[in-house]
Amino acid sequence: MGKQMTEMLKGVLEGIVLAFLRNRSAYGYEITAWLREQGFADIAEGTIYALLIRIEQRGLVDVEKVASEKGPPRKVYSLNAQGQEYLDEFWGTWSFLNQRLDQLHEGGN
Amino acid sequence: MGKQMTEMLKGVLEGIVLAFLRNRSAYGYEITAWLREQGFADIAEGTIYALLIRIEQRGLVDVEKVASEKGPPRKVYSLNAQGQEYLDEFWGTWSFLNQRLDQLHEGGN
DNA sequence: CTCCGCTATTCAGTGTTACTATCTACCGGT
DNA sequence: ACCGGTAGATAGTAACACTGAATAGCGGAG
Known about the structure:
The structure is a homodimer. Chain A is of the alpha+beta class. The first copy, chain A, has one domain: Arc Repressor Mutant, subunit A (Orthogonal Bundle), CATH 1.10.10.10. Chain A is about 60% helix and about 15% strand. The first copy, chain A, contains five helices and three strands. Chain A has a three-stranded antiparallel β-sheet. The longest helix of chain A has 25 residues, at about 80-105. The two termini of chain A are about 30 Å apart. The interface between A and B is medium-sized, with 34 and 36 residues. The first copy, chain A, binds a DNA duplex (30 and 30 nucleotides) through α1 and α4.
C-alpha cells in the first residue's frame, strides 16, 4: 500500500470500523472483507484483529462468541453506548480536519 | 490535544505543511504560528521542526538559511518539483479517504 | 548590567498505530 | 490424509506526533 495511505489510516481506520459497526454487528473476518470491497484493497487482516482488540479493551464495543459452521468460533462485535459517543467525537474531529483541508486545497492559504 | 486528533494528524499534518509551502516559502516558527491561527491550537513546535527535517531529507523541499534580526538564523523552506508531485499524490489519497468517510457518515453501510 | 521574554531551532525519549509474517485452529471436499 | 478456505492471535518493526528540555540571539524592563 502507499506509504501515504498507511500513515493517513492511523486514527482513521478505527473510526471507519466503528462507523461500520454502528450499522450492524460483525466479526473480524467479515470486516476485513468489507474493507476490501470498499477499496481498501490491502489492509492486512492482522491489522483489523489488533484494532478490534484495542477497541474492545477500551470498552467501545461489546463482544459475543458465536460458533461458526466453518472454522473457529467468531467474535461478533457490536457498538455500545460508549462507542457511539466516541464515534460522535470522531466525526467532529474529522469534520474539523476536513474543513481545514478543503480550505487549503481550494483557496490556497 | 485530543488523542483522536493526534492520531488523525498522522500523515495529514505533513500534507498540510506541504500545501502551505506551495503557496509561499516559510520557516518553522512561522508555520507553527500559522497552524495555531488555523485552529490547530496545540501542535507542539517540536513536532513541526521534526516534520520539516523529515521532508527536507526526503528532498521534498529546498532550504535556505536566512539571517534574522531576532534570534538565530531562520531555515526557510520552499516546495520543489518533487514536493509538488508528492503533494498531488497526497490530495489524491486524501480525497479517496474523504469519499469513503463521507459515504459512511451519510448513507450508512 | 542583568534578567526576562520573544524569536528560532534542535534533540532525546515516549506512546500509538498499521504492517509484516507467522502460527493456531476448525471444517469440508478431493 | 491432505489442502483450501474460514477465523483469530501474536511478536517484531517502522513511522509519526508528543513531551520536555536545551541552546542561542536579541531587545527592553528593572
